[in-house]
DNA sequence: GTGAAAGCGCTAACAA
DNA sequence: TTGTTAGCGCTTTCAC
């Protein structure tokens, strides 16, 4: 293997000079620089990054904790992260945690083991609750904890849910069912808050029985919808707190022989790719997924450069995407 | 920071002994082992993996090259990889290459830079064509190159496509359109080969005009279908070489006011999650995605242990999943 | 602008 | 069974 020593010998300079031409070319005279570069070219030398990282006590790697990598919304977020990470010379280590805290913790401890410089958590939970959190560079995105010490970036979930509910109300709906995610998740709580606020503003009652629990997956949406539609007095519209659940709900309703939106309106949240390809195309809230990723990575980058970001909480804009899955309720 | 030195002092042993208790506990007497473990517990010491990796000249990391991370089929493959990697103590670095060879190359060269020990390529292309390939541990999965030097694991794509085509023929179809992927991709070529074989066996002509090109994405499927349906004599069935394209095709056909499968049959390939949720549910070929991932990782692991795997080419079984998107052609 | 040399934290001969 | 010690390949003072 070619090492920096070989290059230094070949170019007739010291290893320090070789090191400099690689990281601070302007600290080296053009003449020697040329000699070194020639030697590098000639040998096809590639520096041992593992040695460099060891020496600089950096890994140039960050880990992202994602509850479910096959969720289409997250894949877009990840792509945003990867893109800006790459431009800054960072690699991203993917941790598919399935929401399990031990897995989250084990990934997070990679920064203590110097295998990673920081972490982006896409789930509303702090890895290694017990204090350790303070000293690892961490940003929380999408689903966020309330902890003020952690810089975070999220949607105005309550506002978005409120807007969607108001839209449904404006269409004439009075009984709006909800398929929610896990109740621990702040996402669920915030969206539910927006839903209630809209109801209240419209003078409509909040009916606990209209809320069914899911876990954001299509199959859970299917079950939740089935359950809601079996009610004595079923809702005329379904607000699914994720597009995947909405797709599951549409399927369930279709199996029951009902038509969307004629018999029942269904709306989602996220605007994943398939929302557009639903039959009928799904009305939903668009989240700027890639931007979530790139902004989160940007924050982590400044954190890594020593910025003091605690108390930072950024919001990203949502957008209502009206397609054809919601209409007026039947007379 | 606590280092191995600190532990050795605290336990009153040498650093070598500390190192041994961590990696070869049985080479250390119970008494000293206990002392060392106590010191480790007391200090909360965590070994610097970056130093260990540097010293052992391993990274315990592999990179997986995936053309599109938001493709639901790949996310499942990745999950399979991650799972078995984790059990073997490896981390996985995700490289979303968007099919671009420079990105593939730059990721692959992480092995040379000692940032990774090996790579799994999910795309039918060899990174760093120019020879370098021979000396990096690499396994090729899903979409494979023909190069015999590379261990590979794939589906019997031709067989699967043939089976699906035969099914369509058995339903009475005589004009079967195809939306294919990029023609460079071996996936496309193999599946097309199966399609032609089935046609031939049934004594049906092969009509080049019935083949439309896509890139496996939903939007490309939509365009391809539109194009095919605009033919003077359109096909009565569409064999889309990916579920995403099939979903796009169903959408296109729906926009034209046609019914699936009454007016046109549509089938896919992959059996992604949403295939089941289509309207009507999509008839398709199921690929064992997670298994692709775990098997590929398993191969890479043995490669990394020095096994000689060239010429290895494993096949995984497909499964026809008959749902409701294909039926008899209109009279 | 350049070089000598001291680490970085660990592993692995080798010796005892 | 345990300790001594020489690296691993690079970066980074500190002199010159």
Automatic annotation (TrEMBL), chains A, B:
Source taxon at top rank: Bacteria
Keyword Transcription regulation: yes
Gene Ontology molecular function terms on file: DNA-binding transcription factor activity; transcription cis-regulatory region binding
Gene3D superfamilies: 3.40.50.2300, lambda repressor-like DNA-binding domains (1.10.260.40)
Pfam families in UniProt: LacI, Peripla_BP_3
Domain HTH lacI-type intervals: 2-56
InterPro entries the record matches: HTH_LacI, LacI/GalR-like_sensor, Lambda_DNA-bd_dom_sf, Peripla_BP_I
Transmembrane domains' residue ranges: none
Keywords: DNA-binding, Repressor, Transcription, Transcription regulation
Protein name as annotated: LacI family DNA-binding transcriptional regulator
